[in-house]
C-alpha cells in the first residue's frame, strides 16, 4: 500500500528532478484495458504523435532509441492492462 504515493514523492525529489529534468512522466495504467491502449497511453504521456502510415510501436521505439538524456516513466498499476 502507498506505492503510488511513494512513486509521486520520488518523482518530486529535487535530486530526481535534477537528473531527469523535463523527462519525468507518470502513466496511470489502470486507464488502459490492453496492450494497444497502453501503447497509445504511453505515446500520449510522452507527447508523441503517430504520423499516418506509421505504427505507434515504431514511433515509441525510435523515440526511446534516440534519447540523449535519462528518461523516467512511472507505470502506475502496470498490472491493470
Brief digest:
The protein is of the alpha+beta class and 81 residues long. The chain has helices at residues 3-11, 14-20, 35-45, 56-65, and strands at residues 24-28, 72-76.
What labels describe this entry?
single chain; 81 residues; alpha+beta; two-stranded parallel ribbon
Give the C-alpha Rg.
Answer: 14 Å
Strand order of the largest sheet: 1-2
Intertermini distance: 19 Å
Largest sheet: 2 strands, parallel
The 3D shape can be described as flat
Strand content: 5-15%
Structural class: alpha+beta
Number of helical stretches of at least 4 residues: 4
Proportion of helical residues: 40-55%
Strand tally, please? Answer: 2
Order of helices and strands: HHEHHE
The chain-level mean pLDDT equals 93
User: Which segments are poorly predicted (pLDDT under 50) over 5 or more consecutive residues?
Assistant: none
Describe the structure.
By secondary structure, the protein is an alpha+beta fold. It has helices spanning 3-11, 14-20, 35-45, 56-65, and strands at residues 24-28, 72-76. The chain has a two-stranded parallel ribbon. The longest helix is centred in the middle third of the chain and has 11 residues, at 35-45.
Question: What is the topology?
Answer:
Blueprint: H1 3-11, H2 14-20, E1 24-28, H3 35-45, H4 56-65, E2 72-76
Amino acid at each position: 500500500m502507498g506505492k503510488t504515493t511513494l512513486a509521486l514523492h520520488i518523482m518530486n525529489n529535487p535530486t530526481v528532478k535534477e537528473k531527469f529534468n523535463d523527462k519525468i512522466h507518470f502513466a496511470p495504467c489502470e486507464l488502459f484495458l490492453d496492450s494497444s491502449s497502453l501503447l497509445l497511453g504511453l505515446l500520449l504521456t510522452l507527447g508523441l504523435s503517430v504520423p499516418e502510415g506509421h505504427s505507434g510501436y515504431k514511433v515509441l521505439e525510435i523515440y526511446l532509441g534516440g534519447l540523449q538524456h535519462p528518461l523516467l516513466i512511472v507505470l502506475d498499476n502496470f498490472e491493470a492492462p
